[in-house]
Amino acid sequence: MSIYQSEEELDRLLVQLKGLLIKYESHSSSAQSDKYAEGILIYERAKCAETAYIKEIEKLQQQSKESHNLRLQDKQKILNELKLKLDHLKTLVESNQEKLSDKHLDSSLPYSNKLIVWGNEIQDKTQDSINRIRDLTIDSEKIGADVTTDLEQQNESLNRIRVTIHGVDENLATAKSTVKSIATAILKDKCTIILVVTIILLIVSISLCIYFFRDIKT
Fold first, then answer.
1. Which region is the signal sequence (predicted)?
2. Which of 33, 78, 148, 203 has the greatest CB tally within 10 Å of its CB?
3. How many domains does the chain have?
4. In-domain check, residue 199
């Protein structure tokens, strides 16, 4: 799992847990029990995702590691706040179960038997929550696979852009070299022309001098 996949998984679970705990105080006792059973499972999965994210951070270079550590601290703060809400929800659920047990159970039953009945009810609710979590996990894995595919495609696009930019740099370097060669050739041609003209002028001058000297002698 890549660093971005582990971070995305942790973010998704935080959002899921946060949404689950919205206004939990105003829900019915049955709904609170369901929310707590489901919430504790999401919390444990979030802790596992947190551990996976930390392991991926440790593999990074120092600069990237510092950036991800800051983001991790923000996520841990949110997770701790949600855990406090989950603990408060737990106290409400326990209080509801005690009231329900006292109301519906045979008062002659020993307290240990009441706990067994209460535990069975919690187990049934927890199993339902596990089934819901399993379905959510399957959906999230599909979403995660789609996200991973998108990231890979974006990475390939970036690599193609880098290759294109590298090719442009090479073309620019070649063009500069060609222009430099042309300029050098032009300069050499100018020097050659000047030299030829100078030689021609020199020959003409010498010829004129010889001609004038002959006229003078004659």
1. none
2. 33
3. 1
4. no
Nearest to 73 by CA among 92, 54, 52: 54
Q: Which domain holds residue 74?
A: 3-170
Contact indicator for 72, 3 with CB cutoff of 8 Å: no
Longest Cα–Cα distance of the chain, Å, equals 161
CA distance 147 to 49: 17
Any domain includes 126: yes
Summarize pLDDT for 53-89 with one digit per residue, the tens: 999 999 888 888 899 999 999 999 999 999 999 999 8
| CA dist., res. 210 & res. 216, Å (int) | 10
What b/e sequence results for 113-142 when a residue is b if at least 16 CB atoms lie within 10 Å of its CB, and e otherwise?
ebeebbeeebeebbeebeeebeebeeebee
Q: Which residue in 136, 138, 143 sits closest to 16, CA to CA?
A: 136
How many residues can be counted in the chain?
218
For 60, the 3-state DSSP assignment is coil
Task: Assess if residue 189 is contained within a domain.
Answer: no
Domain-located, residue 182:
no
